[in-house]
Amino acid sequence: MGDWSHKLLKWYDVNKRDLPWRATNDPYKIWLSEVILQQTRVNQGWDYYNRFIEKYPTVSKLAVASEHDILKLWQGLGYYSRARNMHHAAKEIVAKYKGKFPIDYESIRALKGVGDYTAAAITSIAFKLPYPVVDGNVLRVYSRLLGISTPIDSTEGKKKIWEAAAELLPKNNPGNYNQAIMELGALCCTPKSPNCPECPVQLACYAYAKKQTGMLPVKQGKTKVRDRFLNYIVVSKGDSLLLRNRKGNDIWKGLNDFPCIETEKAITPENLISNKELKAILSTANPVIESVSTPYKHILSHQRLNAQFIKIKIGKTLKKLPNDCFWAEKKKINQYAVPRLIERYISNYL
Ligand code: SF4
Description:
Endonuclease III, domain 1; Nucleoside Triphosphate Pyrophosphohydrolase; alpha+beta
């Protein structure tokens, strides 16, 4: 390993970004920051982190919060199951450990939603235990530094790098070292045009020496993205709008949107009005199409959502509300937790 780990740690000391969660050893705060940073950039995550900590400063406060309030605070971050899992895990910590965060890797890893990466980050940073963290940045840095050409998006590639990371981890300073290697990936060994001239581990770097920084890491291929076609029915009656609370195991569980008819391909509003499902929803209400939105695209990790919003006026009141739907006052619409796609529509059209 030579002396490059010392150089890396020195570089980290001087160059690390001053982030709120770096000023704490509180495992709850480190956990929250790691979950937020798995899905967003530091700049955007910073605000979410501060708002979250202000509202729920301890794990016990999070445990007694309502799911709706948590999702509302999380709105726009995406991956809402992570927020629900944190809530669930916070309740577990209160019930099983009287609100005191567990201090060993196995107990932390066993909490709902906590994977290898997050458990290693919490235990190494908060409790200084020797567990290597391997995120996307670390995979890229080690692939280049050690010249590992097994695809980093394969199980084998991840395992190889995890083993190397475990071996290289200094047992006396695991938390700082883990953060240093992640920071190197974020600031210096970036995906495109790594800043090798300024890199503290340049002398030890395989990719730099062999002029292979553009070839490493290797990736085996992109995950397939599925297209979905969502036709949202925006029904308004006086000052109210019909909202739907999402249940089941699909995306955005627990959040609110509008009644929706999903089709296999794009469909015109005229064809939609004769759709059986829509007829069942609006049965006796004499629906008239008031307006149709421009098409919306929304990209999730494995899905491309193609949405249109069809505003419908109804002549009579609905005899029976569709499943999981409820009337919400238009002026209070911003108080409901909604996915970003719906937020975009609301800010444009309502
Ligand atoms: S020398 Fe370049 S490629 Fe190697 S670790 Fe540093 S930034 Fe990455």
